[in-house]
Protein: Alpha,alpha-phosphotrehalase
Amino acid sequence: MHPLDDSPQHATALRDFRQSVIYQIYPKSFQDSDGDGLGDLPGVSARLDYLQALGVDYLWLTPFFVSPQRDNGYDVADYRRVDPRFGTMADVEALIAGARARGMGVMLDMVFNHTSTEHEWFQRALAGEREYQERYIFRAGSPEQPPTNWQSKFGGSAWAWAPEVGQWYLHLFDVTQADLNWDNPAVRRELQDVVRFWLQKGVAGFRFDVVNLISKPDVLEDDPAGDGRRFYTDGPRVHEYLHELSRETGLAQAVTVGEMSSTSVEHCILYTQPQRGELNMVFNFHHLKVDYAGGDKWTLMPPDFLELKRILFGWQQAMSDAGGWMATFWGNHDQPRPASRFGSDDPRYRPAAAKMLATAGLLLRGTPYIFQGEELGLPNTRFGSIHDYRDVESHNAYAIMRERGLTDAQALDVLAARSRDQARTPMRWTPEGGFSTAVPWLADPHAGASGLSVQEQLADPQSVLHHYRALIALHHQPLFAYGEIEPLLPEHEQLLAYRRVAGDEAALVLCNFSAAEVAVPLDLPDGAGLLLGNLPDAAPRVAEGQGTLTLRPYEAVVYRLS
Structure:
């Protein structure tokens, strides 16, 4: 039993979002409490002590609302009801209270660009009720010709024919995810009510899914040069609508982050400048496309390291100079495991590479996000067949790749590197798994692997998990939470390096992204010292002082300069 009970008088004040570290939980894969093979909300509550000991400040939960689960909960059928497979409203309230008693806030994931086609609104639209048809984006036409040539993010046309009403409806994602019409004031009022409902439950923040896509142009037309995204990305009234949402709901008292699809740094500055009253911070994904050959997610290439640095540091400096704020991250529920993608799957280097990657990311300027399992350095894995995958995007991509002529083995190779299910495998609590007493909803190909569980890593002071705990504590320091960033060695082909500066305080971060040794000129001032290293024998090397430091494969060091 935790020494704090869950009563409000024991609630601890939450950190400022800039000084915080946010941990993302995919409830379906985190902890199963009732033996049905699905993670649930009581399972999250059962692991609150672990999360408190890790040192994180907010828990972002992906959607647990009523949903047909066509897109694993991002197809919401009711924003105010808990899907019974995850628990009850009482379970949500207990989780919010339990987290708050331990100094952590709960953030919910709001999917406001679209609803499930099973949502009451859409069903009433199909029944012919004009009021509800106007809550979506319907267009007249013939069944043979979509209104535009726009493409869905999941492949195929972004339009679906609804024979019930003889019209097309827009779905930028799956055919079961109908886009909402934010130009309709009734839609905006309803969604504001949803935010107020959850704020009254004690929710501390919100992540808004693909929120920069909510505003579409008045006239929808073909895109002869692309898939249509240039017409609706960061759309014409998106800033107005986000400001209104914040103003009308009291969101300024909560932590907010917007997921931005194909956005620009100029728009993200506007989204996050405090005086504008829109969002606290944004996710952008440009740095996670540096291994897309020809810009295609499903065509593999090694990461372009110099381009990665150019994007990371370009955004860091632009947002800092303009007073904007970023979410910093390497992975999430929609991305493959960063330990494999940007680190190493070579057993000789894997733990060091995972710790190096964490060092590089968690100490950037911005609010760090950790997706469950990253703190263990979980790698990608290979599923046996397409039938082992549960992700709708992966199934669609597999079908398209086979149509293009790839063999089954070639398509599975791509999915092993790119599928969203790589991140969604069950959390590893013990060497045996520890997620569920039943067969998990998604296979755990790591079963039986040594060194990849919480239990094992808690017992190993040199583990990836312990390194994350040390990094989280470092981020809580004002220098790393609020300081400016000075990129270094932008053209170095192996090294990511930067300084963090706040007044008279400064720190140097050096990260070797390669399996080769790298010699770094090092001119440390008097009084400098090692704050953190990812290899066990880093500390004695502080005595080198002036001269050259040779970073070993995947080594990372953080020096205090003043």
